[in-house]
Amino acid sequence: MRRIIVDAMGGDHGPGVVVAGALQAAKEYGVAVTLVSESDAVDSELSRHSYDTAAVSVVTAASSIDMHDSPSRALKQKDSSMRIAFDRLKAGEGDALVSAGNSGAMMAIGMFVLGRLPGVDRPAILTVTPSVSGGTVLLDGGANTECKARQLVQFAHMGAIYADKILGIATPRVGVLSNGEEDGKGNELTREAIHELRSTDLNFMGHVEGRDITNGRVNVVVCDGFTGNVALKTMEGLGQFVSSVLKGAFRSSLLSRLGYLLCRGAIGRAYDRLDYAHYGGAPLIGLNGVAIVAHGGSSAKAIKNAVRVAAEAVSQDINGYIVNALGKRDA
Amino acid sequence: MRRIIVDAMGGDHGPGVVVAGALQAAKEYGVAVTLVSESDAVDSELSRHSYDTAAVSVVTAASSIDMHDSPSRALKQKDSSMRIAFDRLKAGEGDALVSAGNSGAMMAIGMFVLGRLPGVDRPAILTVTPSVSGGTVLLDGGANTECKARQLVQFAHMGAIYADKILGIATPRVGVLSNGEEDGKGNELTREAIHELRSTDLNFMGHVEGRDITNGRVNVVVCDGFTGNVALKTMEGLGQFVSSVLKGAFRSSLLSRLGYLLCRGAIGRAYDRLDYAHYGGAPLIGLNGVAIVAHGGSSAKAIKNAVRVAAEAVSQDINGYIVNALGKRDA
Question: Is the pLDDT of residue A67 over 90?
Fold first, then answer.
């Protein structure tokens, strides 16, 4: 049985949703979970649920990382729930780790405790965004503000392996995010990355544009963490805006309220297709271990899916494939 | 009466929608329009409409710029409808110019024919995106792939003047687009720009994130053209994806079809709030003249609004304010 270590203190909604999501995952996917709690914070949450006590254990930490803590400050806090979670993973007391906490802190602690895989210069935040074709892998989502071309090449390999093994997309199409497809578009970084990517065995499409993140043209989009973060947060903002405008529209009259009641089921299914929670969090890909960061605003469902993805990344031996693709280049 | 010169050959849908939009603008806003047509392309379109012949004139060009033509190639094509439109504007035969053509070609020809305003290093593509607060000005939308900090400062001044005079937002809030708000976020460019912007008289908010483009936190977002283009096209792609998923949902059953009929009016008003066409195209701000690029996929309504915005930019003397804010710095 796989054991997933869950930092119960991450997330904007407190340990309640994290515990609920972790217990659901234990039940649905047959995994064991270790909840890392700041003192007795999870105890009252656990008491609200019935669960298989053999599959759920609790480890106590003395503190937790705040969403506003800097990575360097987080690194110094050796008794935080996030740090204890990584220490336990490193000690082999679990197969993978999930946290809905501060992603910068998580990357810093992950690098310190686990280190990186051979052949990977810097781990990246890998995000799966909804798209016409089911989901698009985007990386880096924000770990590395500035990147070199060889890092984008590594991102491309890691993203392609993830798309294949986790999303089930054989020979995924890979593109470099840019301001246009034509010759002469892109910046120095993207043009150099494209030059290098053309000589790999990836199914490489060259420069792609922002709209290609969702339109299904490619399955993997690579970029530096500055650009990736802007793209992801722009999508998040627009999604929330569209959702609030539509909600207002449905509430605007008696007739529209009635109409909404009739198509509520269909709209709910549409929202599911557009919901990032479905894709279950963002791996810190390239770390020497499996660590998944769930969105700070994660619902119990998002936590549950993050635990599922963590277990799958272990079963599918994602990191083995990455070492196989990248580790030998350095050798 | 203001006269707006309209390149009738721009746009993905051919001269039909451009002519229809220009004629609607002439009627609704009391402006005169000069349509620049490749040979007799607009004649059959004009014959479909009744209009005030005193307010509409036609100028003939020998060719037109293709959406795929490079800026350098477009510059050489001296008999294109776009070039003739700029030449006529330069000659004082109109007050402003609208084209739904190739924006790169338009910037190159605009720079060659009109030049830039004093104090402006490089003109930018200014886009108004829908937002919670009505609309957010974003620049540069793609004209300048790589920028210096002083250009971002100029973009901030131009964007703030536009937000004030055209969108009616007094003392607009201005931010620099980045991968986070915290200290240590941003790249070299954004950090230097922030340092310089803090000593201006703008209502400056520092670093902002992608979600702030739509959530109303700021009214003006500045960035280099690479980042701006990625953000805008990411929004465009997500908008199309969401719209297609919702359309599919409404069509998915008899019940949902009926529900849609009942709330169709409310949904239509919601889509209007989310529709870029409402904001009427993107000025090439910083050119020594008023030139508006309408989206290649523009509807007649989008062309009409671009003509309205062109006339307003002239009436409000946007360029006079820009020279006042920036031109004296160089003197």
Answer: no
Q: How many CB pairs under 8 A join A and B?
A: 215
Whole-model pTM: value is 0.93
pLDDT per position as a tens digit, A133-184: 889 999 999 999 999 999 999 999 999 999 999 999 999 999 999 998 877 7
Residue A331: predicted pLDDT: 43
Average pLDDT of the segment spanning B205-213: 96
**Token output for B263:** 């709330």
Q: Hey, what are A287's tokens?
A: 């770390």
Q: Which residues of B touch A265 (CB under 8 A)?
A: 253, 255-256
Sign of CA dihedral B273, B316, B233, B203: negative
What is the per-residue pLDDT across B247-277, written as a single tens digit (0 to 9) for each? 998 998 888 898 888 888 888 888 888 877 6
The Cα–Cα gap between A273 and B256 comes to 17
Site of tokens 């272990």: A314
The whole-angstrom separation of Cα A222 and Cα A155 is 6
Please, what is the average pLDDT of chain B?
92
Tokens 């991450």 label which residue?
A10
> B330 CA to chain A: closest CA distance, Å?
29
Task: Show the tokens assigned to B254.
Answer: 């008899």
Q: Rounded to an integer, what distance in angstroms lies between the CA atom of residue A57 and that of residue B308? A: 66
Chain A residue with Cα closest to B269: A249
Taking CB atoms and an 8 Å limit, are B211 and A236 in contact across chains?
yes
| Tokens 């019940």 belong to residue | B255
Of B229, B237, B250, the CB nearest to A215: B237
The closest alpha carbon to B11, from B134, B102, B143, B140, belongs to B102
DSSP A217-229: S-SEEE--HHHHH
Using a CB-CB cut-off of 8 Å, the residues of chain B touching A127 are none
Residue A54 CB coordination number (10 Å):
9
Q: Is A203 helix (H, G, I), strand (E, B) or coil?
A: strand
| Per-residue pLDDT tens digits for A14-31 | 899 999 999 999 999 999
Instruction: Using the structure block, give the residue that is written with the tokens 């005030």.
Output: B52
Tokens representing A321?
């494939």
Question: Could you give the CA distance from residue A125 to residue B21 in angstroms, rounded to a whole number?
Answer: 45
**Residue A314 pLDDT > 60:** yes
Of A227, A263, A273, the CB nearest to B227: A227
Is the ipTM reported for this complex over the cut 0.90? Answer: yes
A251 token code pair: 């509430």
Percent composition of chain B: helix, strand, coil (DSSP 3-state, to 5):
50, 15, 35
pLDDT at B277: 64
Best probe of the B interface among A72, A242, A260, A295, by most B CBs < 10 A, is A242
Contacts of A211 in chain B (CB under 8 A): 233-234, 236-237, 240
